[in-house]
Amino acid sequence: MTRRQQADPAIYEAVDLYRRAITVGSSVFDDSKSVWVPAVFTELDERFVQQPDQGTRSFMQKLEDQLRDASDDAVQLMAELMALHLLVPLNITTGKKRELVQTVLSLGSRDIFVPGVIETAFEHGFVRPGPHYLMRRDLQLWCLINFGAVLTRLRDHDRQHVLGEPDAFKRLVRSVEPTSAYTQRNALLHMFHPDTFEAIVSRDHKALITKTWQDLVLEPTDDVDEQLSQIREALTQRYWPEFDFYDEQIVGTWRGRGKVWSTWTTWAQRIAQAVPDLDEDERQYKLDAAKQMHYLANSNQFDAQTWLRQLQQALGQTDNLVAWRTQQSFMRWAAEQPAHSRNALAELWDENSELTTRIDRFFEQVPPTVLNRAGTGLSLVSVLLMATDPMTYPPYAATAYQKAFDLTDTVFPDGTSEPSRVYTQVLDWLDTFVEEAAARNLELRDRLDAQSLLWRMVKGEPPASWSPARRAEFLRWRGDKLTENDAPVPTLADELHLPTDFVQELEALWADKKQLILHGPPGTGKTYLAQKLAQHIAGQDGTVELVQFHPSYAYEDFVQGHRPNKDGSGFVLRSGPLLDIAETARQNPDATHVLVIDEINRGNIATLFGELYFLLEYRNKRMRLQYADEPFQLPDNLWVIGTMNTADRSVALIDAALRRRFYFVELSPDRAPVDQLLSRWLKARCPQMSWVAELVAEANRQLAPFGRLIGPSYFLREDLDEAWLARIWKHSVLPYLSEVMEPTELAQFELSSLQPGRTATTGTEAEDNPDDDLTEPSDAAGD
């Protein structure tokens, strides 16, 4: 057997005292007493496990009440369990460990002394458990009470067998509730059988290690400890006998390295001090969403329509955590396969399984055409996991964590990593953040606190109370682009790579009428620009609602109409997105609210708008809608922006009444400012591919007679390379041009014809890769 790296011998000498007490039913602190017996564990179970205190007082204050009037045996047993719990951590001082145990003993009437071997073991510990172990001591002790209760109820022969056989011991430990005390359970495995189980208490770390060296597991098994054993056997040949997975030369391979935590936590402290409402802004709504999903996850009733409605309601509270397209795709699949989707979620919510297994099984059941596994799909999974414990499983957003990993010099999982490995590595990073923050007097209660502060650090605006110099310093550290005069915050024009005067003109036009339409051919960034403008105008206090018109979209869908009840009992009058956002604007008059109408000309505009033709022009007037009894008025703080694809319908064909109510701004690939957008964007974001701008410009010069031009948005992606250029050209550009060209004419616009010298070597058949179709476009891609 390959011997594992072990802790100081004092740890295992102390555990031997527990092994003896369990075997004979005596006491660890005083072998003349009998406390490791079923009756005493039953008393602790009744007082501590069955009567949890969910209040806000300290753990020791609550424990004192729970043990009030308890027998001396129960108090002594609780102190011994506390000592067993404290043998694990390296990151608690010896003095604090002694204090905690003595405080428990003081609740009884006996004069009990902690044995010297345990006092010595307190000076060591063998790991730095995550914050959950230290902050949820109640769960760890609950686990130990259940562990002892199960063990002491066994017959003498069976108890000795369990203590002596690693596999039997593991089966017993895994059967112990609560399932959330994984750290304590893993610690028990190593302490009682150090030759068999690694000195690793984090199941996330175990998962990361096995994912990293999966190729070394030659005998397939689902047991993570058996996988670790095979991995150690193989790596011993590569490293040295009795190596530690946390050794400096090894840990970076599976965990990444964080070398600049001091700077990160300094900025974290500054933001936490300057943003007193962090809980209200970043935490509470996540807890509210998790509560609703928790109810759904624990419901024993299954009616397909009710299930889908509840799932939609739960996800509806997480719009800023999961992209709406991802939610829409998943809900569409769930509606088509309600039983299958519920089974997939049941796998994800099964707390008896390892986290990586739960995530892997979920993705196995959801078709890859429904969820992109690399980014947005994992965001949805993280939000769904909040149903089990939002403090343990906080939301995931790829770009935010990539930035945080970069700023702490930690290796982010590459694009080939399985989602389960990515998420477990993120959880490990959050645990490190909590530990590093605590070392610098910044208290983060849990991973959700860490995630909330991370989001504010990498995505939020600098606090308004900061001086310009500090704002600029922070933005430089974060890597944000500063303006030439060292302004601390980049402008919207900088972000859009558009001229400042053009963006200012858009804002001026929109502010005048409150209605604006961006029109132009596909690929000119209309939808992206509309959403960015909407977010900019709405700011942090306003709301943005997005709808898309299409031929089957009706007035009843957009404004208001009678719709059948889901139970078939009749019809009910329901508001559409227009009335919903109007009501939101009315209730929040100090903020600007924006309705974005994508593809506005694909619907029957006259039918869809109805009375809005009048109300859009006369914001101070009221009018009775066709399905309502009370007059309605469009709030002045509700702005509307639409996009029109002129490949579908010319602006000239839009009726004059609508054109009079909106300002129209054209975005054309061959006119400013769009004609230079691709060049500016590539130079700033993908300079090695800057030559593509001239390629597209040359194609557009030749395309002018055909009435079709190629917009820049096809190519606005930071991973653009020659292979992706070939894919985009073949599968997006040429099909678009083929609508107005004969095959003989189309040949001159083949990529190899336009750039023979550069593209002759790119003859990849990347389209044969089934994953290519799953790659999500950049935010700027599309119309």
From TrEMBL:
SMART domains: AAA. Residues 512-673 form the AAA+ ATPase domain. SUPFAM superfamilies: P-loop containing nucleoside triphosphate hydrolases. It comes from the Bacteria. GO terms for molecular function: ATP binding; ATP hydrolysis activity. Residues 751-783 are annotated as: Disordered. PANTHER family: 5-METHYLCYTOSINE-SPECIFIC RESTRICTION ENZYME B, TYPE IV METHYL-DIRECTED RESTRICTION ENZYME ECOKMCRB SUBUNIT. Residues 751-764 have a biased composition (Polar residues). This is AAA+ ATPase domain-containing protein. It comes from Actinophytocola algeriensis. Pfam families: AAA_5 (PF07728). Transmembrane segments: none annotated. Residues 765-783 have a biased composition (Acidic residues). InterPro entries: AAA+_ATPase (IPR003593), ATPase_dyneun-rel_AAA (IPR011704), Methyl-DNA_Rec/Restrict_Enz (IPR052934), P-loop_NTPase (IPR027417). Gene3D superfamilies: P-loop containing nucleotide triphosphate hydrolases (3.40.50.300).
